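quick one
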Amino acid sequence: MDARDIRAALPRWRQQLHAHAEEGWTEFWTTAHVAGILQDLGLSPRVGAEALDRTARMGLPSPQRLAAARRRASGEGADEALLHRMGDCTGAVVDLGPQAAPVALALRFDLDALPLTESHAPEHAPAAGGYASRHAGQCHACGHDAHAALGLGLAALLQSGPPLRQRVRLLFQPAEEGVRGAAAMLEQVRGVPRFLAVHIGLGLPTGTLATGATGLMASTKFDAVFSGRAAHAAKAPQQGRDALKGAATALLGLHDLPRYGDGENRIHVGELRGGGARNVVADRAVLRGETRAVTCEMADDLFARARDVLEGAAAMYGLGCRISVAGQAPAAASDADFAAFLAGLARSLRTEQGRPLFTQVREQTAMGASDDAAVFMRAVQAAGGKAAYAILGSDLEAGHHAPNFDIDEASLWPGLLWLEAVCRAVSSEGGGEG
Ligand SMILES: [Zn+2]
Ligand SMILES: [Zn+2]
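structure w/ zinc ion:
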């Protein structure tokens, strides 16, 4: 493929991935599609358990749901040989450049969609264009379809240009939503001196780029299962142990915890289900929530207090309470010198008409959210390397995680040219000081 073919393929790849939205750990069609394109480029991607540690997957859906998603992918034409290699495990990794050379840079592209039903309103471009999610209740409402397409475009551009001096590794990571997937791929950045993740949108307009986000918040995603005892709601309520009341009390208690005054922090319950009939004392309730904080210490303290609230509410109503962690990411910040190096490259790039490729390039921006790219960033930094989290501006139809979220595809090509420049520079020069 030459650059013109790749530029034309970029929105097409994005739209194909968009139509096949698959939530975390069920990205079977997505993984097979991505790996198939990489193979067509002459590359040798590793997929599923070849690329990640199956046993380190967090917040994994039931085996039945995984099997159903795999069957669906097969029914939608996913490559059977690739599905066979994947087994029950999604995700892919591919290396570009000389096998004998070290890996100079790893880049993370996430694959997953959200458990959300996409808008079918005619003003929503994917609906109007016929590529809205074909999977009810699953929707690319965070732009990870664009990320995966950028990863493919990057592989294609690097393959089509001059050979790389050192290797570049592309991680196609499952289950970013809920910060569940990165830990299972941690091995892929071991000994790698540079790491870069890119997210599209996040409030920045098309034409802009921020190369070094700071303040990625530590987050713990938790499930609490309250178990009580069912009873007749009129004849013998005293014999019941009401799991629904315990969970509802916990919900209010969690939101009532004091905020910390010395940095951003959040607590949120997004789901509460319990009971089954109006006239029966509920014997089971499930609460799903999350804590976030700008330092790991604050995050640990907040989650410890959240545990106290959950267990305390359960005790009030004589209930059992089982708390499990369904996802976890540390706090992280980009390295300023690496971000400056990345920004310098972005500023040096020109369009075919000779204008700057980006209208604005910032070295720093506050994140105000979480991403499990932080798992990779912290690992690379702890080993003496440098990491950055970049935001590629894109005009959005609606905010992230909204049913009518959509990106501006015009933002993709400049982002891709910058990523190619980054890979070529780091592969030959090392990528800044340190
Ligand atoms: Zn998201
Ligand atoms: Zn996202």
